[in-house]
What does this fold into?
Amino acid sequence: MEEIKWGIIGCGDVTEVKSGPAFNKVPHSSLVAVMRRDAAKAQDYALRHGVPKWYDNAEQLINDPEINAVYIATPPLQHEEYTLLALSKGKPVYVEKPMTLNAASAIRMKAAADKYHVKLSVAHYPARAARISESKRPVVG
It folds into this structure.
């Protein structure tokens, strides 16, 4: 199996403990680069998490030939722009929820995935997963 070499666009709070570290814990997956508009914060994130590369420009990350999948964790306003660019470069996209700001934008994103034959996925974290798991535990009386 080919290794998935991730680039994260928007390495803010959601990527600190949830998604970011997970990319290095899954077999055949590694986090290769991160991007944040603030270069000092991007570099700090990369150093703290052992990520080899960092950028302050999303297009540079997307164009990095080592990266073969992109996780978009920016505010939703940028989701469509970065998704369309990554898909056009043949790179699968994992985009944070909400997918985008409206249905028309989501339709354009899906159409691009179809056009380029590239996978587009939306991050969904079950809000009640812990409570559901807890509720299935036997009651001991």
